[in-house]
């Protein structure tokens, strides 16, 4: 009887241990399933955010060679400080002022391409989701690395907007569609304003389709002249004084009041 009792206790102990193991496995499986459901629930939301972001990039190899090329100029400053934008938000977006945008742009004055002919802004753009969408839109191939050494005036403007946390400056690598994005939103005109995105045609044309270059207005001067900050002029970020004869028009970001 004693031996039989011991056997019974041993079986009971093993049964309890087996049940504990089963329960533990079930708890682990439940935790994994819960985590998987959480990830699955987040994925559509993240995808929706990406789909909702206004992407208006364009940089087909042939088009970029013409429409993103800068003219000639000189470097007016040699500093390239790192700007840290304020954390204020307004309606889910940064309450960005024209002054903040100009400050960021001017912080890059004097920055040049590297020995490979690659720009900081092209490298940055190549790493963003904009790049793949641009290539798909324009049939420019499948490797975003092409932007590293591509003409980068529009990518510079896009980069400035990203640094202050706004999409109001547009998100493009091709000057023509960059300008069209402002016109499509009813934010296009011919009057210069500080912080406006300025578009040029070196041939003196006034058609958006002929735009060659883009920059930012830093200051409005007399007689229709403007002071600008532009990327990809003599392979650098420069400040220039421009006259109306080569200006096609301006895109007006929806800035917060100063």
Automatic annotation (TrEMBL):
SUPFAM superfamilies: Cysteine proteinases. This is CHAP domain containing protein. Transmembrane segments: none annotated. Residues 148-232 form the Peptidase C51 domain. InterPro entries: CHAP_dom, Papain-like_cys_pep_sf. It holds the Pfam family CHAP.
